[in-house]
Every structure is written in structure tokens, then in C-alpha cells.
Design goal:
5-stranded mixed sheet, 12 strands, D-Maltodextrin-Binding Protein, domain 2, alpha/beta, about 230 residues, 9 helices
């Protein structure tokens, strides 16, 4: 039985700032313990809680493995890294920040490609012409595979993107992309368009609980208290 309730939150940048502000809005003041650049914090109103500052992607793994009772991270990352996400975690509250859509976008000059099914229809002639399958650049490999499969698109291969995904079609490194967008400005700058049915997921930061964590003892009470603070 653990005597520590672990809350994992983003460790830097705008996500951390918005998370701290959101908790403060509901009456939970988070502060770092010790050094300002440390990775451990506390909640003044809930001294039994240990706050763990982690990267947004690492928080997903903490929740998946039960190393944190609750965490704040984007739904896009949870759906990407946890295949059976709804069986492993509970999405408790959308936090009204960190919004971004995971989308499929193709070059604007592809005037006959508007929907996902069009990708499959052009795949065979594309391969005959270019001697290869369509290349999809993305950081979201699992979301891409699942979405393309549901849409009946099979003739493609994924090119893992480690940098600016939107620029890969223009550079010749890929033919189309799966990426996140908030305003669409970067897509337009790179002469890309979102397919009419190319929205994979509308994501934002969520307060999430782990089904794999130890909820015995006081952890259940603390979890309920945090949920009550955020309301319905």
C-alpha cells in the first residue's frame, strides 16, 4: 500500500504554465520542492500528493504503467502510445488548453485528392509511375496505421518524422503527412491541404487517471478530492 499519491504534470513550457494556472484556478497550488529546476513538487492544500514534473510523452508512460495516479497530458499522445487507452486510463476532465487536431494533409496541387479513399485510388497508378508506394511522414505512427486501416487505405508506407513534418512533402522526403495543427497556418505555408475526412483526432490537454495505479488506502480519497475540485 503506497502512502504517496503521484500526480505527473508537464515539466516545461506553455503546457506546464497552463497546467499550474489551471490547478490554481480550482484552489490547488502546485510548487516545486527544493531547486527551481528540480522535478519534484507539492500541492499546498494536499500534502500527501507528490508532484512529478515530466515530459508530456513520459507522463503517458507513467499513466500506462501505474507509476502515476493522475497526470496532465494531451489526448493525442495517450492515443498514440496506448493502443487500448480507454482500458488503461480514464479521461477525467478536458482542461481547455493545448488544443490541436491530428490531421491528414496532402499537397495542395493534388487537385483530385479530397478524401481518404482517393489516396487508395491513386496508390496503384502512383506506384506504377514512381516505382514506390505513397510515403506518409508522421510522428504519430500508431494513430496513422489505425486510421488508414479504418479508411481502407493500405498502399502506403510510413516515414518517421523527427523534425518539421509539414516540410517533408516540399523537400521530397514524403508525399503526404499526418501531423498536428492548431491554426493551419504552417500547412498553408507549406502548400498543404487537409483532406475533407482527414481529421483523426481533436486533442487537448486532459486530466487523466491511471487504471494500473495503486488506488488502495488514501489514494482513492485524494483522487476523488482532486476530481471534485475540477467538477463535472
Amino acid at each position: 500500500m503506497s502512502d504517496k499519491f503521484i500526480l505527473a504534470i508537464p515539466s516545461k513550457g506553455r503546457l506546464m504554465e497552463r497546467t499550474l494556472a489551471r490547478f490554481e484556478e480550482v484552489g490547488l497550488e502546485i510548487s516545486k520542492s527544493g531547486h527551481e529546476r528540480g522535478y519534484i513538487g507539492e500541492i499546498k492544500e494536499l500534502p500527501q500528493v507528490e508532484v512529478s514534473f515530466q515530459s508530456a510523452s513520459e507522463i503517458v508512460h507513467f499513466l500506462k504503467n501505474g507509476n502515476a495516479h493522475m497526470g496532465v497530458t494531451g489526448e493525442d499522445l495517450v492515443r498514440e502510445y496506448i493502443t487500448n487507452a480507454d482500458a488503461r486510463v480514464s479521461f477525467l476532465k478536458k482542461l481547455d488548453f493545448g488544443r490541436a487536431d491530428v490531421i491528414v494533409a496532402v499537397p495542395r496541387c493534388w487537385i483530385d485528392v479530397h478524401r481518404m479513399i482517393d489516396l487508395e485510388e491513386i496508390a496503384v497508378p502512383f506506384r506504377k509511375t514512381h516505382g514506390r508506394r505513397l510515403r506518409v511522414a508522421t510522428k504519430y505512427m500508431n494513430l496513422t496505421r489505425r486510421f488508414f486501416s479504418r479508411c481502407g487505405v493500405l498502399n502506403y508506407r510510413i516515414v518517421e518524422s523527427l523534425g518539421a513534418t509539414e516540410g517533408t512533402p516540399m523537400s521530397g522526403a514524403a508525399d503526404l503527412i499526418v501531423d498536428i495543427t492548431s491554426t493551419g497556418t504552417t500547412l498553408e505555408a507549406n502548400e498543404l491541404k487537409i483532406l475533407d475526412d482527414g481529421l483523426i483526432l481533436s486533442s487537448e490537454a486532459n486530466l487523466i487517471s491511471s487504471r494500473a495505479a495503486d488506488w488502495t488506502g488514501i489514494s482513492s480519497e485524494i483522487g476523488n478530492e482532486i476530481i471534485a475540485k475540477f467538477g463535472d
